[in-house]
Each structure stands twice: as structure tokens, then as C-alpha cells.
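Project standup — Tuesday

K.O.: blocked on the structure for the chain from last sprint. Re-posting the sequence here as requested.
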Amino acid sequence: MPNHDNFGLAVIIFKLLMIGRHPYMGIYKGSGDLGLDDLIKQHKYAYGKSAALSHMQRPPKIMPVTNLSPPIADLFERAFAVSSVGGGRPTAREWVGALNSLEATLRKCTVSPAHYYPPGLISCPWCAFEADTRHTLFEPYVSVQPVMGLMGFDPDLIWKQILTISDPGLAPQPLSPSQVHVSGISPSAAPIKELKWKRRLLFLVIFLASMALISIAYKYTIFIIPAALFLGWLGARNLAWDDMSRKIRDRRQQAFSAYGRVEDEWKKLASNDDFLRKRNEVEEAIRNIKRIPELRKQRLAELEKDKIELQRNRFLDNHEIAKAKISRIGPSKKSALLSYGIETALDVNWNDVIRVPGFGQAMTQSMVDWRKSIERRFRPQPNQPINPKDVQAMDQQLAVEKQKFEMIIKSGPGELATIRLRILSKREALRLPLENAAREAAQAAHDASFI
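H.V.: unblocked you, prediction finished:
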């Protein structure tokens, strides 16, 4: 019997790690109508390496078991393999070792403090699942006792601390190339100045020579002028004017591009936007945390207003599809619904059911009709007080919100001081490179003016 017990242990561990999903509860694509018992007897493990050979498919939006860790996935393969029926399923000792190793490597989600996930994943799978299904899987545990008041936590005192941290102010206007005084042409561009005068002199000589030729042989003027212009152009090229002017233009473009990059970095890092944004965030958190008691009263009023709807939802949620007799819906169809997260009458609606593989309009209508039949049996209790579980859930949510505000407020002074120091340090670090880039751009523009 130990091997049989090890099977049950593996199922429990699987459901704990995989948000309540049963290892054999997947999408069956074979023939016949197989219920959960049949799937187990035929070893149709929906998450295994050989799932496709068994005509099984992992439920949508559920991460693969291999994402947990290769050792955990291997233990599940052994637990649910045909070859392990006679023995060899993982023991409790093996599971303890593998689970301890997994726990030691879990990463904490940066979005939800209730989420932890394996290190091999790029992002939190639970956040993605909650976004897809619009259901909160895990709520972080927070004591609900402080919800009614601030319990010694003094946000006003912290705000006074924050006001002592001076705003670094607007970033000083950076030095621009147009503000830089350039005394003369740079040594590397100095030859262009000489070439410019030589070029002018050459054209002047050619012009005078042309005039002289025209006065002597005026009948050939139509030939002399084009020839003179061609000779002038050819002479200028021979003096390497084009090559040097191109280099100077390129140098100007590079200098202004370099200045633009440093200027963009200055605008981004030397600005006090981050400081103001953080201070506003803390101020908003203080306003919100002071509104907690008022917010609790509002939400209690909303619970009272929605009391009948909540009663109806709880009534529907108590009717499980797996235990119900529904026209046209056999065990395999129920398994398919469960694999898509449709577990009770509350989960049934046309749009969600019709998306389940194998469910056409007729079967979907059967599910909708079944839900309606359950709803007709509901009897509202308007005089019944708000369900304590709803109040507890509301207080838990408020406690989570309050804890978030507290964290923002408490960390405010330290973060603001750090941000201020970072901004001032960046300004000092970027000031000289920015000034140098402006001077180089101004010099390059001045050199280019001689072209």
C-alpha cells in the first residue's frame, strides 16, 4: 500500500503547486467519454512528456510542470507513469528534499508580495494568470487589526521629515554651442583658410587672363569663357579643397551629434522630475491612508447594497459541475470545463463555455440552461446581515492597501534623499562633458564657416 499512498501524496502536492488543478484533469482529445476515474486508470497524465500520445492536452493558461523545476517535474513523471504502478513512486522523503530545494530558489514577485515563482521564469506566471482570468489567486496575509486606525503610525511626522529634504530644483540651462565664444579656427582646419584664399586668387587670375584673351581674340569669346571656368574648377580640385571641406563638414556633424547625446542625457538625469514624482506619490499615499476608515464605511455600504447579488453568487458557487447531472454533458466534457477553470454554476456563461474545445452551441446552451435552473432555486434573504466572510475579505483587502501606502510613506524620506543626491551627482558629473561637447560643436561650426 505504500506505493498507492505515494500516488495520493503526489496528487496532493501537484494540486498545491498547480493552483488546485488535478494532474489528470486536462483536455481529452480521444474518442469516448472519459471521466476522471477513467483518465486515472488509463494513466492519461495531462502534463506529462507523453501526454500527446495519450490524446491529452494541458489546460490553457496553466504553466507547464517543467517550469517548477526539472527535479519536481521528474518526480511527477515517476508518480504518474505506468511503469510505477507496481512500485517506484516518489516517497515523502524524496518530495521533502525536492520541495525544500524549490523553496530555496523561489523569486519574489515585484508586483504582488503574495507571489513567488521559480527562478527559471522571466516573469511572474501568477500575475499573467490573474490578468488572463481576472481572478485573484493569492492575497498576501496582512493583519486586519490596524484597518480602523493608524495604530501609532504617524504619516504627518514623516511628511515633516520629507519637507526638510530640499528639492534639487530645475536643472540649470545647459551651455549651448551658440553661447560659446570661439577665438579662431582650429589648427586641424587652418589649411582650409589658406586654400580658400588660393582658390579665390586662382579664379581671379583665370578671370583676368580670360579678359585679356577676350580683348585680343574677342571672336573666340564663346570658347574662352567655358574653358576658363573649367580650368578654375579643375584647379580648385587639384588643391584638395573638396577633400578637406568634406572632412570639416563631417567633423561638424559628429560634434553636434555628440553634443545632442550629452544634452539628452543631461535633460533626463539632471531633471528634478523623479524627485517631484516621488514626493507626490508619498503625499498621495498619506491622503489615501487617512481615508481608510472612511473607505471602510463606503465599502460596507456597498456590501449592504450588493448583499443579494453576493448571496446569489455564493449560492451558484456551491453547485459544482462535477457533481451535477447536466443534459448532454458527460464526464469528459466536465473534465474539459474544469480544465478551463469552469468549476461551478457561477463560472458558467455563454462566452466562456463556447470557447472550450468540443463545446458547440447545443452543449453551451445546455450549460447555460443548467445555470438558469440553479438560479431559479435561489431565494434572497434581504433581512440577513452581511456575510462575515465578505466583511473579512473586505478588511483583508483594505489591510493590503494600507500596507502598500505605509511602505510608500515609510520609505519616502530615504528614497527622496537618495534621489536628490543622485540628481546633484549626475549634474556635477555631466556638467564638464556637456561644456566640452558644446565647445567642440561651436569650434566645428566656426571651422565650417570658412568653407
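K.O.: great, moving the ticket to review. Residues 2-105 form one domain. The chain has two domains: 2-105, 141-177+249-451.
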